[in-house]
Structures are given as structure tokens and as C-alpha cells.
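Lab meeting prep.
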Amino acid sequence: MRIDFEPETMGATPFYKLLTSVIVPRPIAWVSTVGQDGAANLAPHSFFTVAAVAPPVVQFTSVGRKDSLRNVEATGEFVVNLAPEGLFEQVNATATDFPHGMSEFEEVGVEQEASLRVKPPRVAGSPVALECVVHSTMGIGNSTVVFGRVVHAVIDDEVMVDGHAEITRLRPLSRLGRNEWGTVGEVLDLARVRYADWEGRGPEKA
């Protein structure tokens, strides 16, 4: 038995809660920006993924007009920092609705470091930072999708194994439904099957 849900009859907020409870886990873009007043902003966004490979473009969605979006529109730059398990409480705290102009870096006590190619600072304690310049933005309803071209990436050597960022060392947080967060659990390792090797792997045919 299945239960049917209609977005038109449920309303935006209840259906939003439904979506975020089933589209899981969601990686977190811990986005740092700088406003025109020079204040550094830091906020987690869980609508985040890779948008393109060549050029390398990542995307995050701002639901409503938040400081991250305003700063990106004003300056054209941002940094995506990985949200590591060890900074769980700080990541959560930077989602607080601080008044405009207040720096989450300062209020929460998150150490920052200078970026190489863009003005917004990086999170010093994050093992990965992607420095981005705005490629484009797209408004959809009450949300705005921000596409950023990655102009520089930095990764701690401690998380690298044979040139690969090892998931068990990265320990990224993810968002689930309600107030739930995900951590790295069991990791499955399975290579894709080439079509040339597919014969005999599919379901038996009558």
C-alpha cells in the first residue's frame, strides 16, 4: 500500500518537509561569502551538487533571499567548504538567523583563512574548499539556484590516499529530514559494469 501526496493541496511548507525527508542524504555546501560592507558570511546549504564537469561548476540553492545569495549577487564570488563531522555544532550554529551584517565566523567562533583566488575566506578547519566565481543564477519560484565555476580547490593532505580524497577521512556531514543529520556509515565499493561484460549478468529470460 502506498500513500498519495499532492503538492497543490498540501501547501508549500508541508510538501517541502516531505521532500527533505525522502531526498536523503543531502551533501552540505558550507558557503562563505563577503558582503559589500566587508563582513564575512558563512551558512550551510543542503541543496547542493555538481552541475557540470568542463568547466567545473557546482550549484547550491538559496531558499528565499538570504545573505549568501545577496553577497553572491553583489560580489560574484563564494567558497564551498566541506562540512566535516568534527565541526558539527559549528555548522549547525551558522544556520542561525543572525541579523544582516553580523559575521557567523565571529559569532560562532569559526576560524577562517585567506582564499587564493577569491575574496571570501575559507573555513580553516574544513578539509576541502572550492573557490568559485559565479557562472549564473536561476530563479525558480521562491528559490534561486547559484551556479559557481570552481577556479581553485584545496584539500588537506591528511585526507588524501593515493591521490584520492578518502571518504572515511573526510567524514562529511549530510542533512536528512527534520533536525536529523547524517554521518558516514558503511561504505559500499562496487565498480560499474561495462556493457561488454554484461552478458550473463541480467535476469534470466524465458
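Slide two material, second protein:
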Amino acid sequence: MIEVLVADDQAAVRAGLVLILGAAPDVRVVGEAADGERAVGLARELRPDVVLMDVRMPRLDGISATRQIAGFADVLVLTTFDLDEYVFGALRAGAAGFLLKDVDADRLVEAVRTVAAGDGIIAPQVTRRLIGAFAARPEPPSPGPAGVAELTPREREVLGCLGEGLSNGEIARRLSMAETTTKTHVSRILGKLGLRSRVQAAILAQELAASGLTASSADAAAPDAPGSGSGDLSAG
């Protein structure tokens, strides 16, 4: 059973989300919060699998709440289509996914399942806007953390796929490897780069591409370590 905490300052929106999620046989809403402080408190108390987080909330905004929660629960951000630095901040804070509030019921439930299973998810419209926003930056972004140079060639390929918004299963099919191996690579990438979520890794991959440092380039990468192509880690 996937346990979910719903955080939104609008009572009608919370009620609708609870109704939708409650209809799914494998999802249970364990709490509701009308502001960011309450969301953090309930998340610490209830330890849900997923927190549905509104971005703009009173007392504590969704970015700050996500930053505090992301270490022990996956955060799926739900907001209106307003892709600005406020939303980028939520993703950088460690959110595992980002959806628009006009998402249909089936897609919302599937997104909760996806995030609970360890995959990240970003609405297709948002992915396109993210890529466009990075491409339109007047100044080149920084080359990223020093850990990028420690990635193996295969890890760089996986990072590039994360930047395209691919799931573990899609990455596995593209790179012709087992999905468990993909999870291993994602987990190692997050550890080497000091990141909290695969969405943060996707953003970094887009920044690297925008700066001309393609994530899949093996030129500066270390050779694959023994056993780096196998294993089974559920993280990522």
C-alpha cells in the first residue's frame, strides 16, 4: 500500500486529490496539510511514501517544505502551469516529480505509483519548458559538481538519459541493460554528484548540455569500475 500525504492550502483541491487517490486500491491518504509547516510536521510524524506538495502555500512555501521532507519521503509537486525560478527551486530542493494541477485522475494516480517505485516524473509540457529555459539562458551555467568527472562512461550515458526524462525502464531498453542495473547506475550517480533525487540529476544533465558539456561524453570520465555494470539497488 502506498501511503500519501496531501499538502495544499485550498480545501477544495485537497478534497479532490483525496477523493481521486482514495479510489485507487493500492493508495491510502494518511494525512492532509493546509500549509508548509504542517506538511513538514505530518511528514516527519507519518513517514508517508509520497507527499503531494503545492508550491505556493502559507507559513512555509513548498520549496522550503520540500527541502526538509525530501530526505525521508518522495515529494511530487503539483501546481498550476507557471514555470519560473520558484518551480525550478522546488525541483532543486529534491522533489521527485512535477505535475500540473490539470492532470487527469488516472495520470495522477500513476504518477504517485511511479514516484513511490523510485522513478522520477515530470509533466511533458514542463520537460519541454525546462529544456527551453536552459537553452535560452543568457549566461552559460556552471559545469556542475566536481563529481561529474568521476562518472564512468556508462554513468554519463545514464545521466544523459535522465536529462531527457526517461524512466528506469526506458533507460534500460535504450542502453540494452537490465532495469536493476539501471537503478544501480542511478544510485551511484546520485551518490557521486551529491544529489537528492533523479530530477536533480536530470536538471544537471540539462545544464551540462546547455554549457556544451554533454553528459554522455566519456572524454573526462574515469574507466568503469569492476562490477559497475551489475547489481540491484532499489534507490533511484
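Talking points for slide two:
The CA atoms of residues 134 and 210 lie 6 Å apart.
The two ends are 19 Å apart (CA to CA).
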